[in-house]
Write a structure and sequence with these properties.
With 245 residues, the protein is an alpha/beta fold. It contains eight helices and nine strands.
Length: 245
């Protein structure tokens, strides 16, 4: 065999012997047609492209997602609040947030007023919140009796109950409300009026502990993307898409 052929054989052998980049599967509760879903996919696809890692998404309800991530059935979650890891020791928080969201009480009734969140105790209102959202549950349970606090399976169900007069306020995130406002079901109904804000929180990626070494690398990548203005650009682009008729 000639020297050049031997060299090519050595190179080919090294390529074949090299371990393939292992892809990750991240879980989210957001489908690709929502504002948050579009934003998440843009951010993570670019981040993992820079990390040279294949990426897939699995969509499932929040409670099931927690269980799947804890058991390592998915490799991580795309967006959870900073304190989420306290109840999920198998997950490692990526220290750089993906983006911030504001949680609030929304209503379709223009006459409702609330000077502050704590004033809920002086009302006879009924509230709904998305099942599995600890921020809403923790904020509302001390303020309302169980018979006036209803967990629902989707934000669409919560806003439908508002429209039908079966509740007065629904607790969700601003991105979720924006998505539904531009959906055919709610296009003619103003569902974006906020009665009270619960707070604005950063959302972090969480990875199963078997991928702990990836956490600082992903944090660095997200920080760089923010510095480049990419994440804000992705947010604007995603919002324009859901606003189109």
């Amino acid at each position: 065999m000639s020297q050049s052929l031997k060299s090519w054989a050595v190179v080919l052998g090294l390529v074949l012997a090299a371990p393939m980049a292992t892809g990750l599967e991240l879980g989210t509760s957001q489908t690709e047609d929502t504002l948050a879903g579009r934003l998440q996919r843009r951010i993570y696809r670019e981040a993992f492209r820079r990390l040279n890692l294949p990426l897939t998404f699995s969509v499932m309800p929040l409670q099931r997602l927690s269980a799947e991530a804890d058991q390592g059935q998915v490799d991580g979650e795309v967006a959870r609040v900073p304190g989420y890891g306290a109840d999920h020791p198998e997950l490692i928080r990526v220290e750089e947030p993906v983006y911030d969201i504001t949680w609030a009480l929304f209503t379709t009734n223009p006459t409702l007023r609330l000077p502050q969140l704590g004033a809920l105790t002086k009302t006879s209102w009924r509230a709904t919140y998305l099942r599995g959202v600890a921020i809403c549950a923790n904020a509302l349970k001390p303020l309302l009796p169980p018979d006036r606090l209803i967990d629902v399976s989707s934000d669409a169900q919560g806003f439908s109950m508002l429209r039908m007069g079966r509740s007065e306020v629904h607790c969700t995130a601003d991105l979720s409300a924006l998505t539904l406002q531009h959906s055919p079901e709610f296009k003619g109904v103003n569902i974006l009026r906020r009665v009270a804000d619960i707070g604005t929180f950063p959302l972090h990626p969480y990875l199963h502990r078997r991928h702990a070494e990836l956490a600082p690398r992903l944090a660095t990548t997200l920080k760089q993307m923010k510095a480049e203005g990419l994440i804000e650009s992705y947010r604007s682009e995603s919002l324009r898409e859901i606003e189109r008729p």
